[in-house]
Design brief:
The complex is a heterodimer.
Chain A (H helix, E strand, L loop, with lengths): L1 E5 L3 H13 L3 E5 L2 H10 L4 E5 L7 H12 L6 E5 L4 H9 L4 E4 L4 H49 L10 E6 L7 E7 L5 E8 L4 H4 L2 H13 L4 H15 L6 E8 L5 E7 L4 E4 L5 E5 L19 E4 L5 E5 L1 H4 L10 H10 L6 H11 L9 E7 L18 E8 H6 L2 H9 L9 H20 L12 H14 L5 E9 L4 E8 L20 H9 L2 E4 L5 E7 L2
Parallel strand pairs in A: 1-2, 1-3, 3-4, 4-5
Antiparallel strand pairs in A: 6-15, 7-8, 8-9, 9-10, 10-13, 11-12, 11-14, 14-15, 16-17, 17-18, 18-20, 19-20
Helix pairs in contact in A: 2-3, 7-8, 13-14, 14-16
Chain B lengths: L1 E6 L5 E10 L4 H7 L9 E5 L3 E4 L1 H14 L5 E5 L3 H9 L7 E2 L1
Parallel strand pairs in B: 2-3, 2-4, 3-5, 5-6
Antiparallel strand pairs in B: 1-2
The chains are: A alpha+beta, B alpha/beta.
């Protein structure tokens, strides 16, 4: 603890210095205000004893400068004075003085005053230290939040391309949203969305949204079913989240035709299917626990399916909406929500949120508020990028012997090989169909000599395949060869499939009778290929498929 | 290649989902999937969202199901077909016998 004594009279200085040093204070001395300020710039001072009348710079002038040098931390300035009038006291206070000590000095009073002021200074120093720490942490958190916010906004980016299907409104109670709303379209044209509500709100609640969104987008891009998506999300959140945290969720898929909805609902308030007037046509209750609670083998996949019409809309909202309280502590509740939906023709989510806010009389929001309304619309065809095809012509052949016929699935492998040719992969379902029909004809009728008529008997369909299986186990000498030629200049694929059988009669394929259990394959071959020819013997077929 | 089935919460809809390849290799398991269709089942959905390939044997299996369930089920819906599979169903005029979504 260092005391600065500022006095132009050497005797006073010596007296004070001696008295204070006896009490273990470190003492520095200046003879006028200017010297005092110089000294303060050089060394740290905790208490200043300041004479009023001094040459060069008097106490009244020096005091504000000393205070300024002290900065944010309290530096007690105690005036040494012989003046007794009120006016002088007031002036001392006005220039920043904190206290007075009268000459001649009373040792007890001086020491008490210095101790008291020193204590205040210590508290002020501590407070200042804490303030600096707080500022540091605050800045640190601000910076971290900015980074996280950036990541979130990129990860959960909701492009506006779905505005036709869906109107939604999210209003987080704090900077980060513990609710999430995700939308995506599958390759089959189905529209998917997920409304999730993590326990609590703010950043802690929002972290789960990152892994959840990745999984959602990845699985929708594969066109997975809603319960499979729920299962996957549940597994990941169960692993990642602490046990007191979970995520209520509604995962909904609107089919490409816009006519059917399937939904997996866990721990969410009821969803409503409403008509144009806003009347509830159907209520969908959650059947499951929220995501992130149950283990994989406890998880339930049951899904809700419903048929919907074009003018109907599906409303989903997190519990923040119905649990919003007004000043009387009353909740918004389900009946007010239904009333709100009815209050206007084709109400928007924005309007619903406004009604919720006016109900709560605009008091501070307690939880994240999220609501989404899906329009049950058929999917619009997405513009497809033109397919690029390989320019290299090539051909190859495979010989499939009895052993391979019995033990392998050559068509799937062949399709996989062909799919490696640039562009051909887009046609793999059709190529599979052509090869599968031709190959199975070769196996069933060529090599095994089975008769399709069996399929028309009572239970003949199953019998046929049982016979086939039995015949395969007895197969010894057989060969099926498949020749494939890729002709890029004509955009064609040619297949020649021949078998070692004695040939079979081609049944009349013009018969459109759906009841017949055979002939469909051949008609499919004719429809899907641009040319198909059998040899006279009936054990070789040439199929030409156009890639255009 | 695999098959899974799933009943809706109210037991009214049975969904059969086929992954990968839909052909005669599934003949037994496909038949088993609808073997225990009960009285409360109103509708069967064949979900082809994960089906990459099908051939005429799959069509045969679908018709066989239709025949077996004719007395108990009104609608059999085939959903989430990829475009090429949808075309196969259309060529085979399956839209006349099934509800293709």
């Amino acid at each position: 603890m260092r005391v600065l004594v500022v006095d132009d009279q050497p005797l006073n200085c010596i007296l004070l210095k001696t008295m204070l040093e006896q009490q273990e204070y470190d003492v520095v001395v200046a003879n006028d205000g200017a010297q005092a300020i110089e000294l303060m710039k050089q060394c740290k001072v905790d208490v200043v004893l300041l004479d009023v009348l001094m040459p060069v710079m008097n106490g009244f002038e020096a005091a504000p400068k000393i205070k300024e040098l002290a900065g944010d931390v309290y530096l007690p300035v105690i005036f040494i004075t012989t003046l007794e009038d009120h006016e002088s006291f007031e002036k001392c206070l006005a220039v920043g003085g904190d206290d007075f000590i009268h000459k001649p000095f009373d040792r007890v009073i001086l020491s008490a005053k210095i101790r008291a002021h020193a204590r205040t200074r210590r508290l002020s120093q501590e407070a200042n230290q804490q303030k600096k720490q707080l500022e540091y942490h605050y800045n640190q958190i601000e910076r971290e939040h900015e980074i996280v916010e950036h990541i979130f906004s990129n990860a959960l980016d909701q492009s506006s391309k779905f505005h036709k299907y869906c109107d939604y409104h999210l209003s987080p109670a704090s900077m980060f949203n513990g609710d999430m709303f995700l939308m995506a379209k599958s390759p089959m044209g189905g529209f998917y969305c997920l409304l999730g509500d993590f326990t609590g709100h703010g950043l802690a609640a929002a972290v789960g949204a990152l892994p959840a969104s990745r999984i959602f987008y990845a699985m929708v891009s594969k066109g997975m079913a809603v319960n499979d998506i729920a299962f996957e999300l549940n597994g990941v959140l169960n692993t990642l989240l602490p046990s007191n945290m979970f995520c209520a969720a509604a995962i909904v898929e609107l089919s490409e035709s816009g006519k059917s909805v399937s939904a997996w609902l866990g721990g969410m308030p009821d969803l409503y299917l409403i008509d144009e007037q806003g009347d509830v046509v159907q209520t969908l209750e959650s059947q499951h626990m929220a995501l992130g609670i149950l283990s994989d083998d406890e998880f339930e996949r049951t899904t809700i399916h419903l048929e919907v019409k074009a003018n109907q809309r599906l409303v989903m909202a997190t519990d923040g909406i119905i649990e919003t309280e007004n000043k009387q502590g009353e909740m918004f509740g389900e009946s007010r929500l239904k009333e709100a939906l009815r209050s206007r023709h084709n109400i928007s989510t924005e309007q619903v949120i406004q009604l919720v806010h006016s109900f709560s009389e605009h008091s501070a929001q307690q939880d994240d508020l999220s609501i989404a309304i899906i329009n049950c619309l058929a999917s619009e065809k997405a513009q497809q990028a033109p397919i690029v095809y390989s320019k290299i012509p090539f051909e190859f052949g495979v010989q499939i012997d009895a052993q391979c016929i019995v033990s392998t699935d050559p068509i799937l492998e062949l399709v996989d090989v062909l799919s490696k040719i640039e562009g051909v992969s887009e046609h793999r379902s059709n190529i599979f169909l052509l090869l599968s029909e031709a190959y199975n004809n070769a196996v069933d009728h060529g090599v095994l000599g089975l008769d399709s008529d069996i399929k028309n008997r009572e239970d003949g369909f199953i019998e046929y395949y049982q016979l086939r299986e039995k015949a395969l186990t007895q197969l010894e000498n057989a060969l099926i060869s498949i020749h494939v030629k890729y002709v890029p200049k004509d955009s064609l694929l040619e297949f020649i499939i021949s078998d070692s059988g004695s040939g079979f009669r081609i049944k009349d394929s013009k018969d459109d009778n759906l009841q017949l259990e055979y002939g469909r394959g051949l008609r499919l071959l004719q429809e899907m290929s641009c040319d198909i020819q059998f040899n006279v013997q009936g054990n070789e077929v040439k199929i030409v498929y156009s890639l255009q | 290649m695999s098959l899974s089935k799933n009943s809706s919460a109210d037991g009214k809809i049975l969904t059969i989902q086929i992954r990968g390849k839909f052909d005669f290799n599934l003949v037994q398991s496909f038949r088993q999937a609808y073997a225990d269709v009960g009285e409360q089942t109103e509708k069967v959905v064949v979900d082809l969202r994960e089906t990459d390939y099908m051939d005429s044997s799959a069509l045969g299996m679908l018709l066989n199901m239709k025949k077996t369930l004719a007395d108990s089920i009104d609608t059999i819906q085939i959903t989430n077909c990829r475009p090429q599979l949808k075309k196969i169903l259309q060529i085979s005029r399956f839209d006349k016998k099934f509800d293709i979504d």
